[in-house]
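Below is a filled-in request sheet from our internal design queue. Each sheet records the structural input a requester submitted and the sequence that came back. We keep these sheets so that new team members can see what a complete request looks like end to end.

REQUESTER: design group, bay 2
PRIORITY: normal
MODE: inverse folding
CHAIN LENGTH: 86
BACKBONE (tokenized):
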């Protein structure tokens, strides 16, 4: 492969990861879901319309996953509080 292409991909990947460092958990999960959904639908169908639909579905899935994890954390914290009362 072309060396410039590999270096460019590595640089873009590093910049993307650095940009995600300041995101909240919700933002990160929604963005990841949208990226995976869009990429998967785009690769499978080869059409932009399906890629956009996949990105929307992925973003919604990422949001639902985030809400599930937040509820799980709240339940854990409540269990810890209840355990400390005894």
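RETURNED SEQUENCE:
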């Amino acid at each position: 492969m072309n060396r410039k292409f590999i270096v460019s991909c590595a640089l873009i990947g590093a910049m993307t990861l650095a940009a995600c460092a300041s995101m909240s958990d919700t933002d990160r999960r929604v963005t990841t879901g949208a990226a995976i959904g869009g990429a998967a639908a785009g690769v499978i169908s080869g059409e932009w319309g399906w890629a956009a639909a996949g990105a929307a579905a992925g973003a919604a899935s990422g949001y639902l996953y985030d809400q599930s994890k937040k509820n799980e954390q709240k339940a854990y914290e409540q269990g810890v509080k209840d355990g400390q009362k005894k």
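SHEET NOTES:
- Residues 34 and 55 are 4 Å apart (CA to CA).
- The chain has a mean pLDDT of 85.
FILED BY: M.R.
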